[in-house]
Amino acid sequence: MIVSENLKTLSSIFKSNGFSLYLVGGAVRDYLLKKPGHDFDFTTDARPEEIKKMFRHTIDTGIKHGTVTVLFKGGSYEITTFRTESDYSDSRHPDSVTFVRSLSEDLKRRDFTINAFACDLSNGEIIDEHGGFDDLKNGVIRAIGNPRERFKEDALRIMRAARFSSKLGFSIEEETKKAMKELSPTITKVSEERIREELFRLIDSPFPRLGLETMEETGLMEIILPDLYKCKAIEGEGYHKENLLEHHILALESAERLKAPLTVKIASLLHDIGKVKTERWNGQKFTYYSHEIIGSEMAASIMSRLKSSNKDRDDVALLIREHMIQYSPSWSDGAIRRMIVRVGKENLENLFILRECDRNATLALPESFNDDALKERINKELSSSPVLTLKDLKVNGKDLSDITGKGPLTGKVLKALLEMVIDTPSLNDKELLLEKATELVDKETSGIN
Questions:
Q1: pTM of the model
Q2: Is pLDDT of 364 > 60?
């Protein structure tokens, strides 16, 4: 492996003190696959206190588990001492860690053969003690040693296997997959945050189908995304030739081809999930009325359970709620402006990408979505700088204080004025708006009396 000058110098310091330094895991794997590497992990036979003696600037990143960050020549290097691990009572964390001097012992505790490479940074030699070269060549994900033991040590590895399949386009070795299926219930011992991290990386990978099909086959999907799993039971009809789970996967694959943002990919995978709860037989066919509303709520619940950020949760929920827009040329300009307000200008592009993914996963013709015509209408409205927010109004709360007084009535009147101006932009005149505000207050107070 080609080693940078900084790493050679770093390694030479370890060597001059009687120790070795290795680059391990994903960075070596990606180098062998001729892919750019981003995940740089270093390991050494030096103990944490010995590392700290060699360098002036260090940080005790995870000193309990042997990890010290070395600040060296403008770089930051997380270096972990060779170690073995004891039993994993919680199927996630080792009960204790023992530092060792053997690279072989350290490599044996890792998850998959393709992640157990080590590169000696003193000479660039790549060490493979677990058949990783062959598995890389054959496109196989295989647990090191006994797969049941590896997954009992850390249940998250079951999800990681699915994610690596999705990332690399690799198949999972038979015994490894059997162990995943047997031990998939132990994934409930892993925090939702860690599951979310792996799941979202799987969704945002080049081959999401492989990861999702692995999740389905091993039982992970039924545990982590039960409502998505239930989509298998909804058979395709009309524009949907495949069952609903397959439709979602096809939509996600389309999102990957379009290089869509992660939130659009998640929305693609969940956009029709509301059909699970809204399916009804009307005597002639199944209907799914308001599935986009129910699906939006279900997706928001899933994102909250996975401890997603509020923004990602809200963005995904909005896209799903709005993805069934049925545009007609008969829409008024006001209707177009109200749609822009409801969706948000910043979300329009992503909504159209989601609709394209949905269309690509069906037998529907592009014309049936009318998106080109709708985009044209939207662009026409946006080019005229329409009033879309309270900030665009020619009056504000202070202007209305003499009319509305203090309290919630001011906000209520401002909202009503905005609705008027969205429908009729010519009303956005200060004097006219003050007149309308007076009328609204008079109507409100007379209604109370």
A1: 0.91
A2: yes
